[in-house]
């Protein structure tokens, strides 16, 4: 009827409504751009979404009509509820275009919730504005499988990333300020200014008393300290050549990767070389994602190692007196953000650490809240960044260690396009047209490249969890290609492999995938970690390299070896490992596609995120600050000044 009323011609046919979903969402014959699809939907009030999850009004802080913060008290009020099924979405080694992992996560959630009537919540990371304005674009999904409002999701949301930026840079400022003051004042002057008198008595704040105890000084009366104890208290004696904490901004800016600070005349020549990272690389972001409560977050902040002193001892955020202030800046950010999909499935969006330079998963708190909300008959679908060799490995070995949660199923997203590339297809470059090999049937390339998918299936199976392959269908894929890919997945040991068309058809297009996930998640999981934390640092690294990447071995620079010795001496050797490596290859070399063999992984340096709770070796050349491309995405982004609607965001 709607099609009949439209004008004749191909344009009218493209705008014809082909079906209406359960939530009233209209599916057009030709899928418009992501922003157009997102704005064609009228989301329900977020309080309605919350109420259906059993959340009370006083447990929700509204940020407008379509997004809200969830209070952590929900964990207490729902503590007696049994947990739902826990699904981790991961992928093959992607092309620079991405293979639709976020889109698949959203589509699967819509299938489970809107079409299979299962209590379902999706958990996604909040995207950084760096990639959003750079080359990758946003991360709300695409087509008819998106989180809405899409512009809110990709830009600012509720300000969590800005809070991280503020907290991180407050700590960075204190590092330099403390070195400056110690170098320009005597012990007595430092004591007088740091421990002022209140009502005629020298006052020590609680964080100062904690520092005294770490120094072995069991006194709480400032006036009872000896001169020698006062000197030890006021002097951190930070080694300017061993500062690990850098400033951050949430923008891609290659020109601040290496900078000099202290150039002003009033800083009295306290110049040092440093750099600025992207905010999502901050340890504070990792802590937000791994904390289990407000108290746990504060405790983790206190342990953050920002530098070493001139004797090689660790200097922490607590030593600098800033732990409480950091927690205050982050007190709202720790609350997960509630949103919804185009088909009104609830989504919890929280934290956004990169998977190549951090652990790449949304927050533990989001998953914990979600699993209690859906109950024993429900499903929480969470996404791990990039491929199974990166984000999923860290999900299993880091996130699950700290959360105590165990996944019931892994969904591995694969595309014909990416596997053709791994089979020897032409280079895929973002912003340039795809070669004809990717638009036409080519079973030979696909047959060779499928080894990458099979390797990823084997990685997931090492953790003892059922695996379902989601074949994310593109319009150029042929039936023969999809059939071959499914056969290859099953041959590698996947529990099932299902073609999903959720970009085109929303939850309906992922219904078969949802049914396969329900079936796989009902199986017994024999979850296990890959390594014992008590192993030496090198042993843990080599297990990951050999078991996950399939490498021959590991080489260490002199710097990395020195850091291993240093961290072992400081007692950090019992932490899990978070490898920082390229997402574009299973190996350390982004040019090595498919399943490389015989390679030796070079460890350039190792950094300690003691508060977050992991060591992260830098594999080869890894930048913690991306740069802008020749044609950034922001060329297409604008606003309609009459309606206030965002244009061109993707």
Protein traits:
alpha/beta; 28 strands; three-stranded antiparallel β-sheet; 24 helices; 650 residues; disordered N terminus
Helix and strand arrangement:
Elements: H1 2-5, H2 10-14, E1 17-20, E2 26-28, H3 34-40, H4 46-52, E3 60-62, E4 68-70, H5 74-77, E5 85-91, H6 101-115, E6 120-124, H7 129-133, E7 141-142, E8 145-148, H8 150-154, H9 160-184, H10 187-194, E9 197-198, E10 201-202, H11 206-214, H12 227-234, E11 238-243, E12 247-249, E13 259-261, E14 272-274, E15 276-278, H13 283-290, H14 294-303, E16 305-309, E17 314-316, H15 323-329, E18 337-341, E19 346-349, H16 364-374, E20 379-383, H17 388-403, E21 409-414, H18 416-422, H19 443-462, E22 467-472, H20 479-491, E23 496-500, H21 502-505, H22 511-521, H23 537-549, E24 553-556, H24 558-570, E25 600-609, E26 614-619, E27 638-639, E28 646-647
Describe this structure in a few short sentences.
This protein has 650 residues and is an alpha/beta fold. Strands 3, 4, 5, 6, 7, 8, 18, 19, 20, 21, 22 and 23 form a twelve-stranded mixed sheet that branches. Strands 11-16-17 form a three-stranded antiparallel sheet, covered by helices on one side. Mean pLDDT is 94; it is low at 1-8.
General shape: globular
Give the % helix. 25-40%
The total count of helices amounts to 24
- Unreliable stretches (pLDDT < 50, length at least 5) are 1-8
Quote the beta fraction: 15-25%
Oligomer type: single chain
How would a textbook summarize the main sheet? 12 strands, mixed
Mean of pLDDT: 94
């Amino acid at each position: 009827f709607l099609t009949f009323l439209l004008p004749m011609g191909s344009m009218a046919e493209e705008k014809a409504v082909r079906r209406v979903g359960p939530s009233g969402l209209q599916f057009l014959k030709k899928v418009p751009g992501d922003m157009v699809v997102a704005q064609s939907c009228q989301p329900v009030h977020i309080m309605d979404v919350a109420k259906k999850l059993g959340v009370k009004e006083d447990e929700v802080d509204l940020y407008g009509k379509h997004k809200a913060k969830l209070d952590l008290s929900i964990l207490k009020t729902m503590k007696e509820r049994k947990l739902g099924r826990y699904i981790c979405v991961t992928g093959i080694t992607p092309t620079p275009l991405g293979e639709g992992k976020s889109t698949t996560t959203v589509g699967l959630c819509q299938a489970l919730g809107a079409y299979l009537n299962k209590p379902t919540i999706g958990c996604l990371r909040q995207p950084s504005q760096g990639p959003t304005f750079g080359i990758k674009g946003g991360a709300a999904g695409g087509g008819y499988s998106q989180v809405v409002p899409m512009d809110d999701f990709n830009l600012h949301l509720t300000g969590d990333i800005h809070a991280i930026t503020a907290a991180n840079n407050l700590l960075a400022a204190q590092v330099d300020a403390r070195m400056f003051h110690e170098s320009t004042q005597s012990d007595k002057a430092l004591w007088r200014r740091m421990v002022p008198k209140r009502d005629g008595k020298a006052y020590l704040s609680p964080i100062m008393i904690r520092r005294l105890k770490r120094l072995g000084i069991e006194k709480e009366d400032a006036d009872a300290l000896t001169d020698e104890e006062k000197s030890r208290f006021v002097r951190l004696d930070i080694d300017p050549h061993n500062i690990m904490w850098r400033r951050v901004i949430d923008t891609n800016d290659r020109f601040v990767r290496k900078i000099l600070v202290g150039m002003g005349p009033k800083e009295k020549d306290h110049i040092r070389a440093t750099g600025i990272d992207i905010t999502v690389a901050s340890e504070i972001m990792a802590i937000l994602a791994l904390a289990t409560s407000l108290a746990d977050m504060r405790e983790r902040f206190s342990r953050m190692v920002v530098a070493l002193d001139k004797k090689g001892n660790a200097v922490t955020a607590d030593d600098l007196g800033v732990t409480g202030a950091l927690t205050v800046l982050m007190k709202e950010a720790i609350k997960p953000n509630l949103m919804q999909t185009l088909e009104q499935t609830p989504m919890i969006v929280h934290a956004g650490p990169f998977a190549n330079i951090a652990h790449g998963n949304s927050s533990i708190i989001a998953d914990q809240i979600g699993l209690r909300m859906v109950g024993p008959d429900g499903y929480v679908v969470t996404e791990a960044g990039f491929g199974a060799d990166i984000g999923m490995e860290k999900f299993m070995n880091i996130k699950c260690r700290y959360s105590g949660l165990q996944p019931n199923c892994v969904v591995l997203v694969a595309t014909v396009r990416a596997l053709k590339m791994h089979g020897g297809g032409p280079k895929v470059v973002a912003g340039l047209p795809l070669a004809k090999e990717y638009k036409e049937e080519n079973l030979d390339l696909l047959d060779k490249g499928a080894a990458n998918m099979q390797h990823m299936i084997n990685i997931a199976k090492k953790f003892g969890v059922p695996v379902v392959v989601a074949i994310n269908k593109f319009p150029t894929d042929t039936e023969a290609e999809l059939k071959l890919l499914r056969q290859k997945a099953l041959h590698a040991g996947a529990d099932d492999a299902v073609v999903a068309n959720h970009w085109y058809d929303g939850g309906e297009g992922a219904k078969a995938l949802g049914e396969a996930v329900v079936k796989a998640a009902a199986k017994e999981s024999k979850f296990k970690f890959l390594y014992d934390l008590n192993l030496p640092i090198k042993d843990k690294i080599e297990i990951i390299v050999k078991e996950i990447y399939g490498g021959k071995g590991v080489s260490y620079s002199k710097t990395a070896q020195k850091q291993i010795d240093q961290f072992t001496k400081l007692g950090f050797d019992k932490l899990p490992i978070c490898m920082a490596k390229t997402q574009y290859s299973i190996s350390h070399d982004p040019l090595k596609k498919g399943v490389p063999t015989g390679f030796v992984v070079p460890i350039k340096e190792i950094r300690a995120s003691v508060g977050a709770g992991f060591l992260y070796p830098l594999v080869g050349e890894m930048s913690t600050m991306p740069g802008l491309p020749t044609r950034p995405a922001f060329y297409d982004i604008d606003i309609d000044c009459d309606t206030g609607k965002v244009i061109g965001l993707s």
